[in-house]
Amino acid sequence: MPKILVVDDSLTQLTLLAGMLEESGNTVWTANDGQEAVERMGSEIPDLVVTDMQMPNINGVELIKQMHSTCPLVPTILVTAFGSEELAAEALGTGAANYIA
User: Fold this and answer.
1) Which among 8, 10, 12 is positioned nearest to 29, based on CA atoms?
2) pTM of the predicted model as reported, rounded to 2 decimal places
3) Span 68-92, mean pLDDT?
């Protein structure tokens, strides 16, 4: 069963995303921000990371950059309500597998 790490500082969004992914039969872990995600990945590597962009401590793009230096084969999807072409290009340029506005 795939292990997915969902990262979002909004409890509502975190619960919604995690619930949908769990209903599809995935094992889901959560983190409240990029720093907590990095710490969680220190003990076990997920198969996929779904992350918000705007978060305290480490934002989504910084999380992707840090992940790709330690676990470059883990795909990452960046999800944000504040999308733009520039942000999409930056996310994809840093290694995100996909970008959802």
Assistant:
1) 8
2) 0.89
3) 81
